[in-house]
Structure formats: C-alpha cells, structure tokens
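Here is a typical sample entry:
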Amino acid sequence: MNFASTLLLWYDNNERPLPWRETKDAYAIWLSEVILQQTRIVQGMSYWQHFMRQWPTVYDLANASEDEVLKAWQGLGYYSRARNLHKAAQQVVELKGFPHTAKELKKLKGVGEYTAAAIASFAFDEKIAVVDGNVYRVLSRYKGIDTPIDTTSGKKEFQSLSQTLLPTHDSARYNQAIMDFGAIQCTPTSPHCDICPLCESCVAFREQRINQLPVKSKKIHQQERHLTYIYIQYNDEIVLHQRGAGDIWQGLWELPQLEHLSKEDGEEWKREAIEVCKDVKHVLTHQLLFANLYYWAPQQRPILSADFIWIPTEKIADYALPRLMEILLDRLRKSNLMLGSNL
C-alpha cells in the first residue's frame, strides 16, 4: 500500500468532525482557514460559528463595517487577518463570487499559497496539494528531509513533493488526511510512532531523527517595548484612542498612553493617579510588551486631541480592544478603584 492510500485508510478511522468539512461553501471554508491561522481549533470553532451566524454569506460580511469585524475578531489576535478578511470579502462581491482556482484565489487580500490551495481543493476540487505545518512535519520525517522549511528552497521542495504524492482521486480528502495525521498522529512532540501505520517506511523513525525534524533556520527576534496606560475617568465617562496604521493593533481601541497627555495634564496625573499594575507581560510574535496601568479621576475633564473619544464607561464592551487591554481592564476591575463604573 502506498503513502497516500495508507493515509486515506488511517483517515477513515481518525477524521476530525469539523463543520466546515461538511460543506462545499467556499465562504465557510475560507473563513475557517483564516480563523485557524495562528489559532487552535478548540478556540477557533466558536469564532467560526459566531461569524457564520452574524454574517452567513460573504455578501453579509462585505457589508459589515471594519469596526464590527474587528469587534467580532476580538481575542483572536493577529488583527491584520480580520482586516484582510473584510477587504477580501468586498473583493469577492465585486467579482460576483469566489474564484475557483488557487492561482486566482491568491489575488484576494490576505490569501496566500496555503489558504488559496485549501479553498481550491476543498470547495472546488482542484487537484492541488495543501501544505501547512502539519504537512511539513509529516513529510520531513517520513522522507528524512532536513531542508529548512522556512526557506524559499524548502517551501518549493515540499510543495513539489506534496504535489507528486497527491493521488488522482480523493485529492481533497487526502489533503485533509495528511493534515489530520500531523495534528493527531505525527505530532510536534511525543508523536505516536508505536502505532503509526507509516513507521516501517519512515526515514526519521528508522534513523532516530524524529525530534530533529522538521528543520527551521530562522529565529524570531522580539523587540521589547514598555507602555504606560492611563484609565481616565471623569464623571461616568472614560477615554479611548483608536490606533492608526504602521504599528500593532491597527484599527483597534486602547486606553490613552502617558505620552498622549499634555504637559499640564501630565503634571496633574503625576500628583493624582493611582498605580493599578506594573510590568504586565504580553507576548506578540515580534514584540515583547511590558505594560503599566494607572487610574486617574481628574477634577477637570482633560483636553485631548481629536483622535481621542469620550464614551460612557458601560459602552466599552462595544469597542474592539487588543487582548492586552482586556487583561489590564480586568486588573482594574479587581482593584475596585473605579468610581461608579459598570466596567
């Protein structure tokens, strides 16, 4: 029995029941693929279900506002995915439907090689290999390939190999099978080699190199940043600021930072503000953040620039906030400092 046949037989008994696999709707499939980038299935499932309820079709999503989409995305992180999702939905509407090939799908905002191949394979039965992290791991171990998977040459090598192994029939099902095999059987750590149907022909198993494959060449450098936020409460209102382009959390809302205060307000803040928490650590892919939070209830309403808004304290749940803001606000709730706030 060859590689593909073995995987398909394994899949018959181990397929993960996922709702987006029960449809050929390109919108539902695309949505699942975008949500599950950088997100585990157990977390992403509820988001997918929420999006499908709120915007059942790509036309509904295209007609939503970016703020609505970002709010629905809150908690998933990597917010560029949500902005790209919204823009791509508008592109699909302009095209009067999803393109049917991976080549054309890649023209949509935020749709790369993997996502294009996944939609083309699962929605439109294009005979194209879908290569994700699970596939890299399975093939690098099975074939004993030590070419780094994060290099251009590595990506080309694995894409070519994957296409060669793709069966003529059941190609979409095979793509699902090899990804599930990597997620369930050939896991990153402690793979189940003792019950693996491929172990007899697996190079890494034979050469005891399971823990050495796949190979990555690049290490992510994290920039360290220190941020000081101020929860400003005047009467029953608080201040929010919408982040602009060119930095983290584009389009999301945050509390004002110390640097946003005028010189006069800064002097008052030093005298009156109360420390809530200090050096709260928050890890992003390329940045390591340490945040301080202070609570300030000024006697007079501070004058802030036009890109700040005052909102009723109970309305903060209506705004899309980065995860770090949620953490800081939770610390503030537990401090019991807020004056008559419904936060």
Summary: The chain has two domains: 1-205, 221-332. The longest strand covers residues 223-234. The chain has 14 helices and six strands.
